[in-house]
């Protein structure tokens, strides 16, 4: 099923190449059941995100960078990848990505409440930071210093190429991060060595309070790809199918040895930068009203209803199941203990290494 939506930056097409792709074979076509599953994840992500935001306002949860508005882009990208094979160098706004990779709402909430059992850092880091190892899937987020994850992703992709391992590494980042020096170095190096990397930019048009026009003299982040001689694809990030197709083609290129691709998913940030930010100081209220009309969750619901894959009863079931899962996870996370002081270094030093104090 193909979406009727068009790109906010480019009303002509859903995706637009800025460079040339030698191997632009797309991924398998999605059917209604695939889209229904993606819709479930998007609904769950929205309910969980709203809960975390609410708990922050009640003083119960730490800082949160909301993924509201980014759900379709994140779920579409993961659908085109293989959680067991690929590597995910995420940034702080990846709640839907984490759910789509199989991290549970409880595990995510444990991080926001700094409770024991959180899988990325043992709840010793900023929420969604740390790493999960290969036994589950390779998720890495060492810090929120903007753009540092790009050279890290490129380094690990180089290692995979040298070892002859067939994996795709995805580096996630925002439009603001695309203006950083690390981004230039990472894309340049990955292009020269034809590394199996997807640079996945979620362009929500703001870097905290700085709008796009004040961080770059171009309209589309994807056009940066031309400078490195790699394909750059701008895609409507409110359309999960369009994102799936763009990322699937990029993954095929990477696995075929044709090198990196820059995929720019154009999205909107529905909430302030983080729960510590007040966007009323820099963002006009009308701007927010307009973008809410493009919300990808009702849009996907509409598509599924139009194709007959979703009716009132099923939609109700999906929405109440999400609410139930999040309610249970909230209760379990609140009842979970805080970590013990003695295992503070467990996530820092490898067992048996000089710093190991276990
Ligand atoms: C090197 C560096 N400079 C500044 C910051 C403060 N900072 C945190 S997030 C952010 C904006 C990033 O915007 P963008 O990359 O567009 O991602 P978004 O948060 O909009 O998803 C900034 C400037 C930082 N973390 N690291």
Explain what the structure shows.
With 358 residues, the chain is α/β, with parallel strands linked by helices. The chain has a single domain, classed as Rossmann fold (3-Layer(aba) Sandwich), CATH 3.40.50. Helix content is 38%, strand content 11%. It has an 8-stranded mixed β-sheet with strand order 1-9-10-6-5-2-4-3, sandwiched between helices. Strand 5, helix 6 and strand 6 form a beta-alpha-beta unit. Helix 1 packs across helix 2 and helix 5 runs parallel beside helix 6. The protein is globular. The N terminus is likely disordered. The structure holds thiamine diphosphate.
Topology readout:
Layout: E1 15-17, H1 32-57, H2 71-79, E2 87-89, H3 95-100, H4 105-112, E3 130-132, E4 138-141, H5 149-163, E5 169-174, H6 181-192, E6 197-203, E7 206-207, E8 210-211, E9 232-236, H7 240-255, E10 261-266, H8 285-292, H9 296-306, H10 312-335
Parallel strand pairs: 2-4, 2-5, 5-6, 6-10, 9-10
Antiparallel strand pairs: 1-9, 3-4, 7-8
Helix pairs in contact: 1-2, 1-9, 1-10, 2-7, 4-10, 5-6
The protein binds thiamine diphosphate (TPP).
Residues 93, 144-146, 173-177, 204, 206-208, 269, 273 line the site of thiamine diphosphate (TPP).
């Amino acid at each position: 099923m193909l979406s009727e939506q068009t790109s906010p930056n480019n009303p002509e097409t859903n995706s637009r190449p800025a460079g040339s792709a030698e191997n632009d074979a797309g991924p398998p076509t999605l059917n209604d059941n695939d889209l229904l599953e993606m819709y479930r994840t998007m609904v769950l992500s929205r309910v969980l995100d709203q809960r975390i935001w609410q708990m922050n306002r009640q003083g119960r949860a730490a800082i949160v960078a909301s993924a509201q508005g980014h759900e379709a882009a994140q779920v579409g990208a993961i659908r085109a990848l293989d959680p067991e094979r690929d590597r995910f160098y995420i940034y702080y706004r990846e709640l839907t990505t984490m759910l789509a990779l199989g991290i549970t709402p409880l595990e995510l909430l444990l991080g926001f409440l700094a409770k024991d059992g959180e899988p990325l850092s043992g709840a010793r880091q900023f929420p969604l930071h740390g790493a999960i190892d290969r036994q589950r899937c390779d998720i890495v987020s060492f810090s929120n210093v903007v753009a540092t994850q790009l050279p890290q992703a490129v380094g690990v992709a180089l290692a995979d190429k040298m070892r002859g391992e067939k994996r795709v590494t995805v580096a996630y980042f925002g439009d603001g991060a695309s203006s950083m020096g690390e981004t230039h170095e990472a894309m340049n190096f990955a292009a020269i060595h034809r590394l199996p990397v997807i640079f996945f930019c979620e362009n929500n048009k703001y870097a905290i309070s700085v709008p796009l026009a004040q961080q770059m003299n171009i309209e589309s982040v994807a056009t940066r790809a031309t400078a490195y001689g790699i394909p750059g694809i701008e895609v409507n990030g409110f359309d999960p199918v369009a994102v799936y197709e763009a990322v699937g083609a990029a993954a095929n290129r990477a696995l075929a040895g044709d090198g990196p691709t820059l995929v720019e998913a154009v999205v909107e940030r529905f909430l302030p930068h983080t729960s510590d930010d007040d966007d009323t100081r820099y963002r006009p209220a009308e701007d927010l009203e307009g973008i809410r009309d493009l919300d990808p969750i009702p849009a996907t619901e509409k598509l599924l209803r139009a194709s007959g894959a979703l009716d009132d009863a099923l939609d109700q079931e999906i929405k109440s199941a999400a609410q139930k899962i999040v309610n249970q996870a909230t209760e379990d996370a609140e009842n979970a203990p805080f970590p013990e002081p003695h295992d503070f270094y467990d996530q820092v030093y490898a067992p048996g290494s000089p710093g190991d104090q276990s």
